[in-house]
Amino acid sequence: MSNNFSQKSSSELDSVVIRFAGDSGDGMQLTGTQFADTSALMGNDIATFPNYPSEIRAPQGSLFGVSGFQVQVASQDISTPGDDLDMLVAMNPAALKTNLPDLAPGKMLLVDTDAFTPKNLKKAGYETNPLEDGSLEPYRLIAAPMTSSTKAALLDLGMDTKSMDRSKNMFTLGMIYWIYGRSMDHTIEFFQKKFKKKPIVIEANTRALKAGNVYAENLELIATTYQVRPAQLKKGKYRIIMGNQATAWGFIAAAKKANKELFLGSYPITPASDILHELVKHPEFRVKSFQAEDEIAGVASTIGASFAGDLAITTTSGPGLALKGEAIGLAMITEMPMVIVNVQRGGPSTGMPTKTEQSDLMQAMYGRNGESPVIVVAAHSPSHCFDMAFEASKLALEHMTPVILMTDGYIANGSEPWLIKKLADLPTITTNIAKNPEGWTPYTRDKDSLAREWAYPGMEGFEHRVGGLEKNVQTGNVNMQPMNHEEMVKLRAEKVKRVENYIPDLEVEGAQEGDLLVVGWGGTYGALHTAVQSAFGVGKKVGLAHFNYINPMPKNTAEVLKKFKKIVVCELNAGQFYKILLAEHPGHNYFKYNKVQGLPFTIQELMNRFDQVIAAEKVVNV
Amino acid sequence: MTDVKKYTFKDFASDQEVRWCPGCDDYVILRAVQKALPEIGRKKEDVVFISGIGCSSRFPYYMNTYGVHSIHGRAAAVATGTKLANPDLSVWVITGDGDALAIGGNHTIHAIRRNVDMNVILFNNEIYGLTKGQFSPTSLLGQKTKTSPFGNTQPPFNPGELAIGAHARFFARISGNKPKELSAMFIQAEQFKGLSFIEVLQNCVIFNDGAFDKFNSKETRPDNQVYVEHGKKMIFGHDNNKGLRLNGLKLEVVTIGENGVTEDDILVHDAHEPDPTLHFMLTRMENPIVTGVIRAVEDMSFDERFVGQMEERIAAGKGVTFDSLVESGETYTL
């Protein structure tokens, strides 16, 4: 560390993890997003994770009103927003109190001293001011009067205090930009676009950003600045994409490829609403977004639209999936092509709407009356949501069945760079539309996939009725004969089972055989991938099999499972995929690792668990 | 539509054996629909019947058109999706008092509020038939049923009040045993742009036989039912000498030629009046009850607004492609 502040030293880092924490009205999501976007534009790989309360504007300064946004920027390929913080930004005492346990000693802590008033300290439950009582000594504390400095910079603009205070997050961002050598250009451009009609807001935010930047440069406490070099990502055109946006775009692409119009029947629910928010913006693609009166009407209208020949989808989260169950059964028995997106959140019941979890798998697999198999697939990262929304649509249309696409709050709200795909790069979607009315019945099927031919209103000569009552296996007329029913039950199951002939094999990362196969599905991929890479990198015989397809599973699943001495199934639930694997692929040495805290896995806890399982003499499950 | 084939009612009958109880009004309604369809000038493949669950909801299986026998209470929601997906279709919802007003009440009021251009036929028999005789949301107070052995303690809905309260643009009530009236009504409903809500008083011969006898039998109908028509005086009665007149804020029955009442005093029915006050009062009359098209007020339909907005956006977004969408906003090249 240099003592000459005008010539500060600069050191290079592979990655930086910053968490922005403040009141839910402090603009932490925006601040974090700007840092991430700027870093991406500078060539870094990025991964973000917002963590916000379910209250829209919780009382100011309260512990439960703290909103957080974590971002990792790196010079190498990364898959998670990071375990360990390099910097915590705490805009008030409550943010400090709730987030400090995650900051290791010696790491940087940036606080707004103006917010540490007796009132705020009391709200956060501090008896003494942590800025004064020495409790923050283990950290590299940078305490700056951000609110008052912002005001000082904006004084002559003639704004009221409240409006000036709104720019303090940009003062903070300006400081951080200086510390990490980020350019302010992108953010200034952002102001100019976002507040086009409010020049004073552009001016205020720009001034605050620059003031923070200069403040940091002159601050004696900041002795070193840091650089994170561009990552060696695949060449091409990128954009930052959030999971829910990627999901919405995947459907738009699928409709184009299938030459179908897209219908969305949906009801607002956290954290799925952003898919609806995105799709309502795009009627120009003949996307028909219908906000229904409830979850059931959302799925029911989707069935109606599917019957009429659209690529029809519905979007929801756990409690909504429960409400849609009966209708999904109808879509299953009528063999209607449609996609149900379940953006999972903490359950049961209303649970923890803004927190992530993977606890709806059993519901997706079995949450309907009767024998009711549907295809279940899962997306594993924000940009992968695009691929799986597309794939779910393709499977639904080509196999004439409802498909449940599982994502979760973590990847739905998380973002990462996406190597932009063009329509021409995507696979074709071949709908099986009826052509010859002669002898046609609604159950005329493709002999390989068993998908029934699709005929919809407007097609002459194919008038037919479908419905929830059991039907004759040939004619499609109502039929309650015992043997016919059993045949139909088996046929519907076989149709879904045969999808395994149309999906890619399960791939294994890391060790291809050996001591431990780590198994996961869905949004935990980033953490599992990083943890397995690390373990494999130090010579451990650990591989990762991450399932994108859950029902049916890839054909080579049994093949993969038997190559490892032990298997550990890691999930953010109490062991749901574990149970499915036990039932469908028995006879392996299964362990499990579960976390149900509304939070993603950390890489460290996974690696510890891998070691524990490798060393275990007998099955010990957590 | 010039290229529509000349159909007969037989063209609209499927090959499925109809399985309602002998004597059920459902047969009359089915035949009336099959007779109305050749008159409406729509191609068979453009007609869709969507039902929920209940006796009446078997209806689509008996129609040789496209059809969905959906799940309990959800027909209006399914039909809304069908209509938005393809607004050119003629969409019919077949439902009952339990289906539409109990389990599906929410979808019913919202479909009405939105004014989806479709025809909703409510088979109101004031009882649950398929589940064998429990009271429904239109069963009378005190009515003894399987689940109200000591008399029903739940006051009923009046479907007309509910529909108009939910901003129905078209509401009609009609006897379930008058084939010609029914057919004419269905044609009128189909021609009305927007959601047409038709309450059919449908007698259940098994669980609630005679529910409407007090105003719908050969003997009682003339004096206890007034069939209203737009632009005509609301006159009824065995001797065609009774009528409805407004007295303050109430409708009253008067006899022409008595107490100085002349024909001029009798109200002329205006189904097109946007203010629903009088229509509301007509639906609430108990003796006589009012049948016919009580309300028919033109308005834009939901699908018209929905498609209209979409077409505007398509026109505004000319040249927008998927590739331009994913490259819009901020991108960067590595």
Brief sketch in words of this structure:
The complex is a heterodimer of chains A (622) and B (334). With 622 residues, chain A is α/β, with parallel strands linked by helices. Chain A has a seven-stranded mixed sheet, sandwiched between helices. A six-stranded mixed sheet of chain A has the order 3-4-2-5-6-7, sandwiched between helices.
What does this molecule look like?
The complex is a heterodimer of chains A (622) and B (334). Chain A has 622 residues and is of the alpha/beta class. Chain A has three domains: 5-228, 3-Layer(aba) Sandwich (Pyruvate-ferredoxin Oxidoreductase, domain 3), CATH 3.40.920.10; 239-425, Thiamin diphosphate (ThDP)-binding fold, Pyr/PP domains (Rossmann fold); 508-615, Rossmann fold (3-Layer(aba) Sandwich), CATH 3.40.50. In chain A, 35% of the residues lie in helices and 21% in strands. A seven-stranded mixed sheet of chain A has the order 11-10-12-13-15-14-21, with helices on both faces. In chain A, helix 10 (273-279) links the parallel strand 10 and strand 11 (287-291). In chain A, helix 1 (28-41) runs parallel beside helix 6 (168-179), helix 4 (146-154) crosses helix 8 and helix 7 runs antiparallel to helix 8 (199-218). The longest helix of chain A has 20 residues, at 199-218. Mean pLDDT of chain A is 95; it is low at 1-7. Chain B has 334 residues and is an alpha/beta fold. Chain B has a domain at 9-219 and 287-307: Thiamin diphosphate (ThDP)-binding fold, Pyr/PP domains (Rossmann fold, 3-Layer(aba) Sandwich), CATH 3.40.50.970. Helices cover 30% and strands 19% of the residues of chain B. Chain B contains eleven helices and twelve strands. Chain B has an eight-stranded mixed sheet with strand order 2-1-3-4-6-5-11-7, sandwiched between helices. In chain B, strand 8 (235-236) and strand 9 form a beta hairpin. The longest helix of chain B is centred in the N-terminal third of the chain and has 16 residues, at 25-40. Chain B is globular. The termini of chain B are far apart. The mean pLDDT of chain B is 96. The interface between A and B is large, with 69 and 57 residues. Strand 9 (237-242) of chain A pairs antiparallel with strand 12 (332-333) of chain B.
